[in-house]
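Subject: Protein record for review, amino acid sequence with backbone structure tokens
Concerning: The relation between a protein's sequence and the shape of its backbone.
How to read it: Take the token row as a discrete description of the fold.
Enclosed: The protein record, placed directly beneath this head.
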Amino acid sequence: MILENTFQSLTAEIYLIISISILLLYGVINSTSLITNRLIIIRNISILSIYILIISILLIYNNPFINIITFNNTFIVDNFINIIKIIVLLGTISSIIISLDYVKYKKINNFEYIILIIFSTIAMLFMTSSYNLLSLYLAIELQSLSFYVLASMKRNSEYSTEASFKYFILGVFASGFLLLGFSILYGITGITNIEQFYKLFVDNFNTIEYFGIYISILFILIAFLFKIGAVPFHMWLPDVYEGAPLSVTAFFAITPKIVLLSLLLRLFIYTFYDIIYYLNNLFIFSSILSMILASIAALYQTKIIRLLAYSAIGHIGYVLIGIVTSSVESIQASLLYLIIYMIMTINIYSCVVSLRSHNNKIEIKYIYEFLNLSKNNPLLSITIAFVLFSMAGIPPLAGFFSKLYIFSSAINSSMYLLTFIGIFTSTISAVYYIYVIRILYFDKSSLWIYLKPINVELSYLLAITFFFIIFFILFASPMLIYTHQLALFLSI
């Protein structure tokens, strides 16, 4: 690594900070005007934010500064981080597109909505590049503060207020665990740099130091498992997903998980690799519980968002299988699973956001409201059916390949119990996915809900993600090579 204290390696983050400051100034000036419509302000800021994020992707892609540690060992830039950043920015663009029409008919007239999304995206970019415990903690807190406010954007809804308050209380509790773990780790070692931890843990410690380090890593692991919504620290996720505005829920489901799980990979596969063996059972325990609890709890859900929330918990359990096995093959499988899951999540939330009544513009909440959708909107029904089949792991859709490579990596590492439980819970999860499809196509009712047409931007997003899910089998090899290179970048 080349050690340079330069701003040039973080051009995208600096560009985003400057741009969002200008957008904030634009929003403040125009929101106080009695002439300008607030919905026009939000629309303009949303469109400008999409262009800003696209330019940020180009800045990251064309950044010549690779494998550089900057700001006095605080941030790092390498190929793995740059690719994760691009995925994060694409996820944020998708979330803003999903929210374009939603904020209009839900009358979320606060331009700060988009500003907070961009601020949280900047925090996620800093989280990805963080190479120091202090910068990592500050970036996580910046992201969390933005999320707490976003969850309460429906000010006239008591469910949104409850979700935000619950998220804030439990989030602060998890942040306390994270800070306590970092403090104990610093108190024992006297260092905060991630690479120095890696070099230090190659040597041997005495029993007391070992015990203290295990305690600190345990606290850090608890905090990260809470942030990603893994069992037994999942209790906030269904309530927050249900209470937050639907476009905010889509953002929560699409973007943060790729960042947090990439941090888990960097910390527990790279930095703590020499001592994590003794705490590996915690990952196994969390993975098994996530898969089992999510598959059973989802069977009893009547609301589509809570069903998707428990589905997300189950998918986190599958991703943790790749972290447990800790091989290049398993890291590749986890990254492939994350990318495919992110695309499936964009698709399903785009579908759910577009489902609202034509007359009173009420969004569809309950699963039974999918009745007669196949006759009312055949194309949307086909999209929902295929993405649910993909989430269930039905071949030859993209979700089948993600589970196939996760289970293959577990078998190659002799993790037969995890593989068996994963296959068993996948079979159970197929029940509630197919239940939704049955309502779409086979249940009959006199209830007809006439839906509003989908806006153009959302239809393009639906088409792109739908064709990826359907035709993934045609370009599976390039994607496998791509994720393999990504896994190798992490291990270098």
Observations:
- Strands lie at 2-3, 68-70, 75-77.
- The two ends are 11 Å apart (CA to CA).
